[in-house]
């Protein structure tokens, strides 16, 4: 091919005007707003009580500001970072309940049971919420029963060579908690044995009703 022929074959992008570029960006932003705007707006209203005369209606303990899941340095059973499953670009992103406890004694197992029962009670929405657990140590008795009682709960671990940074107010060494993670990968709320299944179920039903993803 001669130099003249190469000059005649222009890149199609060279013909795109600045106005077309700006129009394309506006279209992309509009599509994002249509897809995720209602979720973001509703979430802000829910957490802040904005436009809600009764104030916040959540039963769990809010984490303010929400903590990014990435800082917890967790990985799934497959060995991949847990945070990779979340975000607006992930078509299969779900809500997740994560039980965290350094030593899984009676209170810890109470939360494992609570998470399982709440998940079942969601009925047709149960598949929108996943369950997992990071447990530093598990008694032999619980280990023996795990496959029968908690087979649907994924066991998590800490990424090799990493140190987890738990959300504000969360210390698994002192107290087990259930962390609620939204589809964007934010830890937004936590629960303990002071909460009932009805408390958690009410929050989840409300959030799932507001959510456009997960």
Task: Tell me about this structure.
The protein is of the alpha/beta class and 214 residues long. 36% of the residues lie in helices and 21% in strands. Strands 1-7-6-3-4-5-2 form a seven-stranded mixed β-sheet, with helices on one face. Strand 3 (95-103), helix 3 (106-121) and strand 4 form a beta-alpha-beta unit. Helix 3 (106-121) crosses helix 5 (197-210). The longest helix has 31 residues, at 18-48.
The biggest beta sheet is recorded as: 7 strands, mixed
The value of Rg in angstroms is 22 Å
Residue-averaged pLDDT, rounded? 83
- One letter per element, helices H and strands E, the order comes to HHEEEHEHEEEH
Q: Could you tell me how far the N terminus lies from the C terminus, measured between alpha carbons in angstroms?
A: 53 Å
Number of helices: 5
Task: Provide the low-confidence segments as ranges.
Answer: 45-54
Using DSSP, what is the number of strands?
A: 7
Strand content: 15-25%
Q: Could you name the key traits of this structure?
A:
214 residues; alpha/beta; seven-stranded mixed β-sheet; 5 helices; globular
What's the structural blueprint in terms of helices and strands?
Layout: H1 3-8, H2 18-48, E1 61-68, E2 74-75, E3 95-103, H3 106-121, E4 129-137, H4 140-149, E5 154-158, E6 177-181, E7 186-191, H5 197-210
Parallel strand pairs: 3-4, 4-5
Antiparallel strand pairs: 1-7, 2-5, 3-6, 6-7
């Amino acid at each position: 091919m001669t130099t003249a022929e190469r000059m005649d074959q222009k890149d199609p992008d060279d013909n795109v005007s600045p106005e077309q570029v700006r129009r394309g960006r506006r279209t992309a932003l509009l599509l994002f707003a249509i897809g995720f705007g209602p979720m973001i707006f509703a979430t802000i209203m829910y957490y802040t009580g904005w436009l809600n005369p009764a104030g916040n209606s959540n039963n769990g303990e809010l984490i303010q500001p929400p903590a990014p899941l990435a800082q917890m340095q967790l990985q799934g059973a497959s060995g991949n970072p847990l945070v990779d499953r979340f975000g607006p670009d992930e078509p299969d992103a779900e809500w997740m309940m994560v039980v965290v406890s350094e030593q899984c004694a009676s209170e810890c197992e109470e939360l494992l049971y609570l998470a399982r029962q709440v998940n079942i009670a969601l009925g047709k929405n149960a598949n929108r919420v996943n369950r997992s657990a990071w447990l530093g140590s598990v008694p032999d008795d619980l280990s023996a029963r795990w496959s029968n009682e908690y087979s649907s709960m994924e066991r998590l671990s800490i990424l090799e060579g990493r140190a987890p940074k738990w959300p504000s107010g969360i210390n698994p060494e002192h107290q087990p908690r259930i962390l609620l993670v939204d589809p964007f990968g934010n830890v937004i709320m936590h629960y303990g044995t002071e909460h009932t299944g009805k408390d958690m179920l009410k929050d989840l039903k409300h959030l799932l009703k507001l959510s456009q993803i997960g």
